[in-house]
Amino acid sequence: MKKNIAIFASGTGTNAENIIRYFHDSESGVVSLLLSNKVDAPALERARRLGVPCAAFGKEEWASGEAVLSALREAKVDFIVLAGFLLRVPEPLLRAYPGRIVNIHPSLLPKFGGKGMYGGRVHEAVLAAGERESGITIHYINERYDEGGVIFQASCPVSPDDTPETLARRVHELEYRYYPEVIEKLLSE
């Protein structure tokens, strides 16, 4: 039986779009809702264009979790995927979806994770530290940023002449390739 997936996104939504397209004809799941904390997030328009219902909630609504939880229940959501979502998921959602909320982070956690470590900031930190590899971590979420149990990691080399932009491109390739596949496996467990 197909499971309903909700995506939480704050930004451009390229990962969200990739996931929506991946599950369009899937037997295991379908993206039935996209929620954002920003009314002008490009992710919302990407989702609408692909026929996925979406909504944005303000900071207070996210903090309490009540309205978000109501939207998830109305859409009969089984599983939540964070794709560039920058807020901490509130306790009521963690309780309602234990072991069913995952995130992707653009580094090999536990390195370069935590509050404020997202997007270009992560790539800048990786380069400043002189790392020889970076990558992605797909993990369950808990009440602390980037500290939930690791599900999957994939790495890529860091070149001496990399910029945050060139490194980001390689990391994005890993995200687009592996995130939908890992989600699909989790749906069947």
Can you describe what's shown?
- Helix 1 packs parallel to helix 7 (164-187) and helix 6 (119-128) packs across helix 7.
- The protein has a seven-stranded mixed sheet, with helices on one face.
- Strand 1 (3-8), helix 1 (14-22) and strand 2 form a beta-alpha-beta unit.
- Helices cover 38% and strands 22% of the residues.
- The chain is an alpha/beta fold and 189 residues long.
- The chain has helices spanning 14-22, 42-49, 59-64, 66-74, 91-96, 119-128, 164-187, and strands at 3-8, 29-36, 54-56, 79-82, 101-105, 133-140, 150-157.
- The two termini are 12 Å apart.
Structural class of the secondary structure composition? alpha/beta
Strand order of the largest sheet: 3-2-1-4-5-6-7
- Arithmetic mean pLDDT: 96
Q: How many helices?
A: 7
- Approximate shape: globular
Quick summary:
The chain is an alpha/beta fold and 189 residues long.
List keywords for this structure.
189 residues, alpha/beta, 7 strands, 22% strand
Q: Layout of helices and strands, plus pairs?
A:
Blueprint: E1 3-8, H1 14-22, E2 29-36, H2 42-49, E3 54-56, H3 59-64, H4 66-74, E4 79-82, H5 91-96, E5 101-105, H6 119-128, E6 133-140, E7 150-157, H7 164-187
Parallel strand pairs: 1-2, 1-4, 2-3, 4-5
Antiparallel strand pairs: 5-6, 6-7
Helix pairs in contact: 1-7, 6-7
